[in-house]
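Order emerges. One example.
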Amino acid sequence: MAGFFVEYVAAFARNEPDALSELWDAVGLFPSPTGNFAMQREAFRDHCVTLMDFYREQGIVRPVGALLAANELFPNVAQARLAYRMLGEGDELVAEWEHVYILRRTDRWRVSLTIADGEMAAWAAKGAEL
């Protein structure tokens, strides 16, 4: 699982929306405080482009993700919690939050669901609309 998230954060760092979206199930679920929604992989890929552009606009030059916890809930179903630190020039901290993921393993681990409330709260506190 740790290797999966190294690959996941690296895809963000390289600004590779195709690589990132391939690490998701065909349909990803996104519960949020303002309502739940789902995105098919191609729509999620487009969302990744928007998100990567947003990060650059906020001055992020290097995302860092640390796996805080991961455990298998059922065979081939796991949960993970990551701490993200978004760094700008000179490793200045731009934003930080925790993120929760539910993953499923078929041919490999893939994200099925994410809860991004921490990220949304972090950007709202900075006055940046995500």
Summary: Residues 41-57 form the longest helix (17 residues). The radius of gyration is 14 Å. The mean pLDDT is 94. Strands lie at 24-30, 37-40, 62-74, 77-87, 93-105, 109-115.
